[in-house]
Amino acid sequence: MEKDFRYVWHPFTQMQDYQEQEPLIVERGEGVMLYDVDGRAYYDSVASIWTNTLGHAHPALTEAIVKQAQLVAHSTLLGHANVPSILLAEQIVDIAPQGLSHVFFCDSGAEAVEIALKMAYQYWQLKGRPEKKRFVKFVEAYHGDTIGAVSVGAIDRFHETYRDMLFETFKVPYPYCYRCPLSLSPRTCAHACMDELKTLLAEKADAIAGVILEPVQGSSGIIPMPDGYLREIEALCKEHGVLLIVDEVATGFGRTGEMFASDHDGVRPDLMTIGKGLTGGYLPVAAALATDEIYEAFLGTYDSNKTFYHGHTFTGNQLGCAVALENLRLFKEERVIEHVQDVATFVAERLEKFWDLPAVGDIRQKGLFVGIELVRDRETREPFAFEERIGWHVGNRCREYGMIMRPLGSVCLFIPPLIVTKEQAGAMLDILYRSIEEETSARVGGTLR
């Protein structure tokens, strides 16, 4: 603990607050459980920030890393190749939305977004349309923390500090009626938001390189698009000659009940970013996927200046690609997608009980991607003040009862490893319910039961 306080600067963490309590220091994991250095067990209800698919210390995934390490751990992909990255690229193309046929590897989701933005930008230059260089983003979007990713993000608390460093974008509303100031129905809200995007594309398409979006917004509080909305955006982009970039870093690899969230609407993006669950949460591998049309625009002679000048030291790292291959093999063998769909139905039924708590203002679910938004007053939608740190208090209470739950502001999350059983999911939700009840009852006047 003393060395942690002395040497480590933790991400998204106010370090002064962090050092005022005993930190949870993880030593090992098994299945859906994590264990600290004192041997205490905790349910991992957020899949170690949405990455873990098949559980911690899965023997087959561990073995895949060991076997690869005995051959070679890493060699450069800059102008050279390696076996695991080739086989993994083939597997990714096989499961990705149709048309995405080329894989550019990197180390994190934010890097994948940077790659997709640069590909889109350079693509239009190569096509003789250099004026198409702006991007359309959505309100409350989050795509990572590098400068390009922050430029297409729109969560002020995270991004406002860096405003002068960012490039200009167009911003349109994301369709979710709970937060809509007009209090419209879901479909009416979606159409109102669509009208803004339609108008923007009709007026500014000649200046727009691409539209970038999350099919379910993650860091803004688990906000899914209404069914069919993504398909309408795809059609608009094609109509106006604008690239569609879908960020599936958080939603990919079964999290929403399909391999990718785009699959729910049968959407075929021009560019797609993936990461997190690709390796089962074991090693940092991510990628940007592109169509033949985009890839072929970059082909030319050595001196044509069409090369995509981008790369990372550990791009296509053999250890990461080997464990990703094993993760995808087990997805098929163990029918993980079907399991997620089954458990998600059970979770939806259990979530109904949470409406008994007056502090619960909204419950949002897509597969095993769940956000429970806490409010001071459900009728008026009055939020808890930021300074009250209600989500933080609930997270601390969960920890007391043996569960790790990292909230997003006042939104409590349930995003377990995909192999979670119904019994385990029920136990986690019981802890979450109890923790919300105990931390909010005095603030909103008790339960409704």
TrEMBL record:
> Which residues does this entry assign to the site Participates in the substrate recognition with KAPA and in a stacking interaction with the adenine ring of SAM?
F12
Question: What are the names of the required cofactors?
Answer: pyridoxal 5'-phosphate
Q: What is this protein called?
A: Adenosylmethionine-8-amino-7-oxononanoate aminotransferase
Q: What is catalysed by this protein?
A: (8S)-8-amino-7-oxononanoate + S-adenosyl-L-methionine = S-adenosyl-4-methylsulfanyl-2-oxobutanoate + (7R,8S)-7,8-diammoniononanoate
Identify the PANTHER family for this entry.
ADENOSYLMETHIONINE-8-AMINO-7-OXONONANOATE AMINOTRANSFERASE (PTHR42684)
Q: Which GO terms describe its molecular function?
A: adenosylmethionine-8-amino-7-oxononanoate transaminase activity; pyridoxal phosphate binding
| InterPro entries according to UniProt | Aminotrans_3, Aminotrans_3_PPA_site, BioA, PyrdxlP-dep_Trfase, PyrdxlP-dep_Trfase_major, PyrdxlP-dep_Trfase_small
Say which family it is in.
Answer: Belongs to the class-III pyridoxal-phosphate-dependent aminotransferase family. BioA subfamily.
Q: Which of this chain's residues are annotated to bind pyridoxal 5'-phosphate? A: G109, A110, D247, H312, T313
Pfam families in the record: Aminotran_3 (PF00202)
Function per UniProt = Catalyzes the transfer of the alpha-amino group from S-adenosyl-L-methionine (SAM) to 7-keto-8-aminopelargonic acid (KAPA) to form 7,8-diaminopelargonic acid (DAPA). It is the only aminotransferase known to utilize SAM as an amino donor.
Quaternary context = Homodimer.
Q: Which domain of life is it from?
A: Bacteria
Q: In which pathway does it act?
A: Cofactor biosynthesis; biotin biosynthesis; 7,8-diaminononanoate from 8-amino-7-oxononanoate (SAM route): step 1/1
Sorted alphabetically, which keywords does the UniProt record give?
A: Aminotransferase, Biotin biosynthesis, Cytoplasm, Pyridoxal phosphate, S-adenosyl-L-methionine, Transferase
* EC main group: transferase
GO cellular component terms attached to this protein's record: cytoplasm
Principal localization reads cytoplasm
| Native source organism of the sequence | Ferroacidibacillus organovorans
Q: Which HAMAP family match?
A: BioA (MF_00834)
Question: Quick one: which residues bind substrate?
Answer: Y142, K276, G311, R406
GO annotations under biological process? biotin biosynthetic process
Respond yes or no to whether keyword S-adenosyl-L-methionine is given for this record: yes
Which residues does this entry mark as bearing N6-(pyridoxal phosphate)lysine?
K276
Under Enzyme Commission nomenclature, its number is 2.6.1.62
Q: Where in the cell is it found?
A: Cytoplasm
